[in-house]
């Protein structure tokens, strides 16, 4: 418990401090993307008949993240920044023609799953962090990406407390027997309260935030729902592989996928939510 608590405090401190500055955010999530992909590729390479290029798959995912960041910081560059990534993916497909793996289709499938499941969601954190103002200039909004993790941490805490006290009805017993409807509802209510507070303080200054209080509570609800699904998706992944934890890089907390499972669904959902608001308001 002590090790878990110390690791949790250090983890939260690193995440918060890393998100507060644009370049530290890019470095932090580039590392997270690479570490998560390295962990993922090591896990799936233990599946019979699957053999994917661990090094190139990880480098490709990190490059995709950095390309997305570069496109947000310098939108004039256009799609050309993704050309090396496209070539790398093409190489990973063509290489199977010469490697004589037992099941190349499975290898292709798990290679692309890593890019879609890990590299793409983390890359979208750049969409939340770097916005374009009316003058076409790039602005940095640390509050949006930080709030996603605040909501996820709040939801975990609220779900644990309310689930321990009132949990009776299982949420998804086939995949995650420990989760209850009572815990999920309690966590969600706490997130809505926190989202309201964030919305209030974010709009206190002379320049209001792009989200008002109702929009902040909507974002909180989206993060809760999709964060819960993200947790369940990773649980299904681990059950498929027959493992308890995805790794041991974080003492007391398991691996990178264990720690960021909720965010892999919550980040894309938050981006879709913000773009949906933009379309409605437009």
From TrEMBL:
| Associated pathway | Phospholipid metabolism; CDP-diacylglycerol biosynthesis; CDP-diacylglycerol from sn-glycerol 3-phosphate: step 3/3; Lipid metabolism
Some GO term, biological process aspect, for this entry: which one?
CDP-diacylglycerol biosynthetic process
TM regions (residue ranges): 7-32, 52-71, 78-95, 107-130, 142-161, 181-201, 213-230, 262-280
This protein's GO CC annotations: plasma membrane
Q: Which UniProt keywords apply?
A: Cell membrane, Lipid biosynthesis, Lipid metabolism, Membrane, Nucleotidyltransferase, Phospholipid biosynthesis, Phospholipid metabolism, Transferase, Transmembrane, Transmembrane helix
- Catalysed reaction per UniProt? a 1,2-diacyl-sn-glycero-3-phosphate + CTP + H(+) = a CDP-1,2-diacyl-sn-glycerol + diphosphate
User: Matching InterPro entries, A to Z?
Assistant: PC_trans
EC number(s) recorded for this UniProt protein: 2.7.7.41
* Record has Transmembrane helix as a keyword: yes
Identification of the protein by name:
Phosphatidate cytidylyltransferase
Q: Which gene encodes it?
A: cdsA
């Amino acid at each position: 418990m002590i090790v878990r608590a110390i690791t949790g405090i250090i983890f939260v401190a690193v995440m918060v401090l890393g998100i507060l500055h644009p370049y530290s955010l890019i470095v932090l999530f580039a590392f997270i993307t690479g570490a998560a992909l390295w962990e993922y590729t090591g896990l799936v390479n233990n599946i019979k008949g699957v053999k994917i290029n661990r090094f190139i798959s990880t480098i490709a995912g990190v490059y995709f993240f950095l390309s997305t960041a570069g496109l947000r910081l310098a939108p004039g560059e256009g799609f050309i920044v993704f050309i090396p990534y496209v070539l790398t993916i093409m190489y990973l497909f063509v290489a199977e023609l010469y490697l004589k793996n037992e099941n190349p289709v499975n290898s292709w499938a798990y290679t692309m799953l890593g890019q879609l499941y890990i590299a793409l969601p983390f890359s979208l954190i750049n969409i939340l962090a770097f916005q374009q103002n009316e003058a076409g200039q790039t602005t940095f909004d640390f509050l949006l990406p930080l709030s996603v993790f605040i909501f996820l941490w709040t939801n975990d805490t609220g779900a644990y407390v309310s689930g321990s006290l009132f949990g009776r009805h299982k949420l998804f017993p086939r995949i995650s027997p420990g989760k209850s409807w009572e815990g999920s509802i309690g966590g969600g209510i706490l997130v809505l309260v926190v989202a309201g507070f964030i919305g209030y303080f974010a709009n206190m200054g002379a320049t209001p935030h792009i989200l008002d209080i109702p929009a902040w509570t909507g974002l909180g609800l989206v993060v809760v729902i999709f964060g819960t699904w993200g947790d369940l998706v990773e649980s299904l992944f681990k059950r498929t592989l027959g493992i308890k934890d995805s790794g041991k890089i974080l003492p007391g907390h398991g691996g990178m996928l264990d720690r960021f499972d909720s965010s892999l669904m919550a980040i894309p959902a938050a981006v879709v939510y913000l773009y949906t608001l933009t379309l409605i308001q437009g």
